[in-house]
Amino acid sequence: GDSVTQMEGPVTLSEEAFLTINCTYTATGYPSLFWYVQYPGEGLQLLLKATKADDKGSNKGFEATYRKETTSFHLEKGSVQVSDSAVYFCALTPYNNAGNMLTFGGGTRLMVKP
Amino acid sequence: EPEVTQTPSHQVTQMGQEVILRCVPISNHLYFYWYRQILGQKVEFLVSFYNNEISEKSEIFDDQFSVERPDGSNFTLKIRSTKLEDSAMYFCASSEPGNEKLFFGSGTQLSVL
Predict the structure, then answer these.
(1) Residue A95 carries which DSSP code?
(2) What is the C-alpha to C-alpha distance for residues A104 and A36, in angstroms, rounded to an integer?
(3) Cβ of A102 under 8 Å from any chain B Cβ?
(4) Which residue of A41, A98, A104 is in closest CB contact with B55?
(5) Which residues in chain A touch residue B107, judged by CB atoms under 8 angstroms apart?
(6) d(CA B1, CA B107)
(7) Min CA distance, A48 vs chain B (Å)?
């Protein structure tokens, strides 16, 4: 079945550091790929998405590129802020998925220190 | 911004008891979902619901689970006879037709003793 693997956390960075959170997936066909973020005490929020190979999703300074050849969707940000501290989830839905069944990775906690 | 609300935020129950977890999806959304996350594990899909019926469900969603939209605003998950392994954070979500973006609630932490 489909699966998503992301780097284990926690990831601890200083403010303004560069962030990479690795995500790889296993799926048939061309899934849609997502990054969700969960701030403390809140629900998961869609951060960005990409629906086909070589698409780049971006939002709030974060970006991720859909790499079919490496089955990856790594999350990057050039300069993190304390307010970016949260848990980040990589996820996919299968191609032509009418039911929006998300398959999640295990989540990566990011802690940004001033 | 509109949001999905879930109640209660924490629920403690005895093994074998029935529990109902409640959710109020965003008002113009037509697709509804339940996901759960057991402590230390991945967020897992349970069920999706559209047009007053289940559209997809996972292997986890067995006969002990049921969902209902009892009125125009609420969406509930019932567990008939809870087991210890049902202890988890349960997330409700909703989405618009044709939109892959899901809006999640902040979850109900269910503890089965």
Answers:
(1) T
(2) 9
(3) yes
(4) A98
(5) 43
(6) 18
(7) 9
Whether A108 has its CB under 8 Å from any CB of chain B: the answer is no
- State how beta strands A32-38 and A44-50 pair: antiparallel
Residue with tokens 């971006």: A58
**CA-based torsion, B20, B24, B30, B32: positive or negative:** negative
Residues B18-26: what's their mean pLDDT?
96
Residue pointed to by tokens 């403690």:
B12
pLDDT digits (tens, 9 = 90+) for B45-101: 999 999 899 999 999 999 999 999 988 789 999 999 999 999 999 999 999 987 888
Instruction: Indicate the Cα dihedral angle A18, A89, B105, B25, nearest 10°.
Output: 110
Mutation pick from B38, B104, B108 vs chain A, by most beta carbons of A within 10 Å, is B104
Strand extents, DSSP E, chain A:
3-6, 11-14, 19-21, 23-26, 32-38, 44-50, 56-59, 62-65, 75-77, 86-93, 103-104, 108-113
Q: Round to whole Å and give the CA distance between B42 and A44.
A: 13
* Cα distance between residue B45 and residue A63, in whole Å: 25
- Report the DSSP beta bridge partners of residue B23: B6, B75
